[in-house]
Structures are given as structure tokens and as C-alpha cells.
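Q: Convert this sequence to C-alpha cells.
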Amino acid sequence: FNEKFRKETGEKPTELDKTDENPLVYTGSVTLAGNVLINSDMWYDTRSGDGVYDFSNAFKLFKENLKKSNISFYTQQSPVGGKDLGMSKNYNYNSPNDILDEMLSTGFNAISLASYHAFDKGTKGITNEITYLNEKEQKKIFVKDIHGIKIAFLNYTYGTGIKDNHV
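A:
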């Protein structure tokens, strides 16, 4: 790498001074959680009498740990198209907005929406999800500065269930 850098830039790469007895140390913490895929059992068990879905019991054990992290990131595997698109299950998912509210309340501050199931409710589902989360904010790249370290998250999916006629 050093030789390639010199040839392309004409400069010597910057290297750490390994003799420095007091190097600058930057620290931060990141919590990464896997796929939150809301299926019929979850939304059925969390539904209250007034049509609200209460997911707090499912995620309460995370709260204390997430307080220790600068960034708490998770993947929302099932799309959140909202109740007006109907709750659905197995291969054609849709989740209530209540799950996003609960994840924020639990302490997550970064979310990935790109997944295999992102298009399960078509364009309307994606539009509802983005609108609920604040469309303006979704067009920005999430960059967090943690004690001088800049961290960004980008999320992509290689495909969606539409090709398998799940939509």
C-alpha cells in the first residue's frame, strides 16, 4: 500500500508515531442488533384492546445495555407500512408503526430499512414507512461523531421478495 500511495500521490503516507508514550485514544461504543421481523404471533400477542400494539415486553431487556452505547443500530426486517395496509404474516409482511416507536423508546437511534422484505407491501408500504419516520431525515446519510470519530451507516439489499411473487 505504501508504495502504491507514493506512486499515485507523490507523498509519503502518514504513519502513527509508535514511539509516542501518550498517543491520543478515541473510544466509542456501538450496539448492533439483528433482524426485527414482526410476524403474526408477535403482533397478535402485543395487541391491546384499543388497537395499539405494545412491544415493550419484547425489548425491555435491551434498555439498560443500549444506554451504554453511543450508537444503537438495528435492522427492521419486516416493513412498517402501518395498520391501514393490514397486518400480514409469513412471506408478505407488514408491521404497525408501534414497533418503530418502541424501538426508539428502547434506545435504538439508528435503523436499517433495506431488507429482503422491504417491498412486501409495494410502493405504498415503503412510502408509509418513510413518511412516518420523517422523509426529510431519511434522505440524509446518518453520520455520528463520537469523541472525534465519525461513523456512518449505509444500508442496501441485494433484492426483495417481489421476484418470488411474495408481493
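The two ends are 47 Å apart (CA to CA).
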